[in-house]
Predict the 3D structure of the following.
Amino acid sequence: MNEPAAVEAQPWKPAPEEEGEIQHSLFGEILDWMLAPLLLLWPMSIAITYLVAKSIANQPFDHALEDSVTVLAQQVREVNGKLVQRLPGSARDILRADDVDSIYFQILGPQNRYIDGDRDLPRPEPAADDDTIHPGAVSFRSDNLHGTPIRIAYAYVNLEEDGRRPARLALVQVAETLEKRAKLANEIIKGVILPQFIILPVVLALVWFALSRGLLPLAELQERIRARRSDDLSPIAPNQVPEEITPLVRSLNEMLARLSQSIDMQKRFIADAAHQMKTPLAGMRMQSELALRQTDQNEIHRSLEQLAKSSEAATRLVNQLLALARAENQPQAGTTLEQLDLADLARNVVRDWVPASFSHRIDLGFEPPQPPDLPVPIAGNPLMLRELLSNLIDNALRYTPPGGSVTVRVRSDDAPMLEVEDTGPGIPPAERLHVFERFYRILGSNVEGSGLGLAIVREIAQQHGADVDIFSNPRATQKKFPGSLFRLTFPPAAPPVEEEPPHYG
């Protein structure tokens, strides 16, 4: 059996992607997600407040303009076919009296004929149809006069007293500049925004305090974990942490349970290995001391032969211990499986064991799948699978008497299968579940071994998702030697993804 290669321990270095990673703060992350929307909504709130303030400021001044237009429209009359307005000069002065804004008015007769007021006051858009004009109704619009924005209220006056159609309409407009409106809107905005400058820092302080208080259980959990002894792998009580981090604590408890199980397994492994090493080492020491006391060359030679056998047994035990440790730690090493041909791998391993079969005087053969050139693809680790098959062949050669046969067979029926068949004494059904345990050996077998070979087989098979079954050899011809058949059933390998050839346009 091939000896596992020694692996030199290397100091841990962070992965390349780990070196450039920046550690993020949970406190800072939550604070960012809370303050960013708040700071984004604050200018939006100011903009909305400004629009609302302008709307509120427009309402009272629009009502005043509406009253002015209504009063002015009531003074427009047609006398003897001539349009006149009966607004006295004092009333006109009152209409224009304003310390802040400039007031304008205009009266136009039919066909937009100027009657009175400010000639430059903009006129409304002409109506597409007279039916859309409602005499007496006051409308509002915004416009500009001499580059200054103004607010205009206007109404149409029907000069036909009986209301006949088509109506003869006069236009009455009253306009003012927007200084009072802007001043009122600014006062409203100041009254709303200034308190926000006081409230916002208070809100930020309260958010900071609430986050600090809310994350306090994490700090307490950290202190409890840090205060633990290094050998304390007991689970953390989920009822002592907030509900939101209970899944994290549960996952941590599961990891602690796996770690505890792994440590217990390693302790048992070390204890079993130490116990098993005592016998060959004690035998080697006894044989060496006996050889030192002997004077007869034949006795010395016999002692040295026993010493060599004990050394070989100890070497084999150490190699199997290392192979088992490597197989158990393979998942943690993160070794990826690769596509390989099970038939080709088995053929090469059998070829390596042919010389050993000659020394045991056993016929070692290989039966390929049918047809012989049919590949049997599986996903696996070649080194581990060679170790698995080598242990099965070694186990079969040790238990098969001279003159017997060992056959390695690869099949591809519903799933890839690997079989190792021998003509040895076989394994009783009651023992088949125990032979995969470490250091377990069937009583009365009288075969040298450590009891680790099949444990290695089971460990590697589990890593590859394969099922291991033990049967009696259906082709055995002697009742004294019913033989054994070890069958490993692998999951089918996923078909390789074919890459499309590049297209050149």
Summary: The first strand starts at residue 76 and ends at 79. Residues 1-18 have pLDDT under 50 and may be disordered. The radius of gyration is 50 Å. The chain has eleven helices and 14 strands.
